[in-house]
From TrEMBL:
Keywords: Hydrolase, Metalloprotease, Protease, Signal, Zinc. Residues 1-23 form the signal peptide. The keyword Nucleotide-binding does not apply. This is Peptidase M16 domain protein. InterPro entries: Metalloenz_LuxS/M16 (IPR011249), Pept_M16_N (IPR011765), Peptidase_M16 (IPR050626), Peptidase_M16_C (IPR007863). Belongs to the peptidase M16 family. Pfam families: Peptidase_M16, Peptidase_M16_C. Residues 59-174 form the Peptidase M16 N-terminal domain. One of its GO terms (biological process) is proteolysis. Residues 208-381 form the Peptidase M16 C-terminal domain. The keyword Chloroplast does not apply.
Length: 474
């Protein structure tokens, strides 16, 4: 770790170099201009029943993208109903009052449309992209399945089987995944985020048309829906939305309310032994903040700096001295909870303790030294370029608009950027010290004893020999 004096000198040099480097690039204000320009073309409406609507006309298009996001996810599920939000997402493609069975998919395919959906802790999203002349048909189909789904015993059984197969393939038949996921979620057990989105085998298997219809009745409602339509929009678009969605009655009961979680940040350590494990691994996780928290923007840049791009501290560490065979990170950002996580698979010569110490050392370096002005500029620039890339894809843009937060509804494209732009060097140090340095979750992922024993021997061998044997073993 460089001394404070050396770091200060390095920061000064980088700052001077950065003046020249940044001068050759467009300013952040110039780079962000398309967000402001596009937002001026955006119209926002709210129907009498509370449903939110964004309309964005894009010239030189011949297609439209619709994205519908509902404020319902796994956090809405009651005990014994884990996985219902995801299962119900599947059901909405399998029949409604006026489009029974597979009519939805067949009709969309016949009109050259493609469609999909996703479920998360806080929300469920549905999107479709198709030629603009089929927009009215699409709105009719969307409204019919959202308002009047038809669930039969047969379709529920079929989709239960589909979800259980998905669960087995992606989670339960993979080494470490289910117990590691359970261990991590147990850190917030008893909260709305304390169980997996995909649910449990028992709960999904026990679902019935009656219980799923009750889930629909309780949580699918117009004031929980945000619809974005982007592309070549006919002049009648708004009247069509009112025609097909306006009669949907808003329930008298209020929307479900969730509060930020109070998470105790302290060191937690555990281990999992899996007989199917091919090699040891390490999972590290830090409880950060939810997407609605004032520190969320700074945390986003910290995650990027540490883990999320090709110039991250993690990548630089591994380039200088390759310690891992594999590493990846998929930060979780919910409304009221955030988790920065990292999965690492070590080289034969590197122990799990070594890996853990190097990662925590990396965090400590950022907490004590922070980032230079140039580094902060580049972090903001990368975030901005990622957002701008979504403007070039109609579906990505529609999804971005439909997922906008309540506080950003008047400025869904620029308000998130302005929070990122406001992050300071001091913010980076402060949030790293407060959220990452106080404690983290460590979970050792261990294979059978004989693989652990073999790796322990490789750790003691000379580096060249251990590398050669490692390749043969793996």
């Amino acid at each position: 770790m460089p001394s404070p004096t050396r770091h200060s000198l390095l920061a000064c040099l980088l700052s001077l170099i950065g003046v020249s480097a940044m001068a050759s690039e467009p300013s952040l204000e110039t780079l962000a201009a398309p967000l402001y320009q596009l937002e001026q073309q955006l119209s926002r409406h709210e129907l009498d029943n509370g449903m939110s609507l964004y309309l964005l006309v894009l010239p030189n298009k011949q297609s439209v993208a619709l994205s519908s996001q509902f404020a319902v996810g796994s956090r809405n599920e009651l005990e014994g109903e884990s996985g219902y939000a995801h299962l119900f997402e599947h059901m909405l493609f399998k029949g409604s009052e006026n489009a029974p069975g597979d009519s939805y998919g067949q009709t969309m395919s016949a009109n050259s449309g493609y469609f999909n959906a996703s479920t998360f802790f806080d929300a469920t999203n549905y999107y479709v992209n198709l030629p603009s002349q089929a927009l009215e048909l699409a709105l009719w189909l969307e409204s019919d399945r959202f308002i009047r789904p038809q669930l039969s015993d047969e379709t529920v059984r079929n989709q239960q089987q589909t979800v259980l197969e998905e669960m087995a393939t992606t989670i339960d038949n993979q080494p470490y995944i289910r117990p590691a996921m359970t261990f991590l979620l147990n850190q917030v057990k008893g909260s709305p985020y304390g169980h997996a989105v995909i649910g449990s085998v028992d709960d999904v298997s026990a679902a019935t048309p009656a219980s799923l219809n009750r889930f629909h009745h309780d949580f699918y409602r117009p004031d929980a829906m945000q619809l974005a339509i982007v592309g070549d929009l006919p002049s009648q678009t708004f009247s069509w939305v009112e025609q097909y969605f306006g009669s949907w009655q808003k329930p008298k009961r209020p929307l479900a309310h969730f509060s930020p979680l109070a998470v105790e940040r302290q060191p937690v350590r555990g281990e999992i032994v899996d007989s199917r494990g091919p090699w040891p691994g390490l999972m590290l996780a830090w409880h950060t903040v939810g997407a609605l928290h004032p520190d969320a923007a700074a945390i986003t840049l910290v995650e990027d700096y540490l883990l999320q791009n090709r110039t991250s501290m993690l990548e630089q560490m591994n380039l200088k001295a390759p310690d891992t065979l594999l590493h990846y990170s998929v930060p979780l950002s919910m409304e009221h909870l955030g988790v920065m996580n990292l999965i690492l698979v070590p080289r034969a010569k590197v122990s799990l303790d070594d890996l853990s110490q190097r990662i925590t050392g990396m965090v400590d370096t950022l907490a004590s030294q922070g980032v230079t002005p140039l580094e902060l500029d580049q972090l903001k620039r990368r975030w901005l370029l990622t957002q701008l890339s979504k403007l070039d894809n109609d579906v990505s843009l529609a999804n971005l608009l439909s997922a906008s937060q309540q506080r950003d509804r008047e400025h869904p494209l620029t308000a998130p950027w302005e929070r990122i732009a406001a992050v300071t060097q001091e913010d980076i140090k402060r949030v790293t010290q407060y959220y990452l340095s106080q404690g983290y979750v460590r979970l050792d992922l261990l294979p059978p004893w004989y693989i652990r024993w073999g790796k322990a021997i490789l750790e003691w061998l000379p580096e060249g020999l251990s590398d050669s044997l490692e390749e043969k073993v793996l």
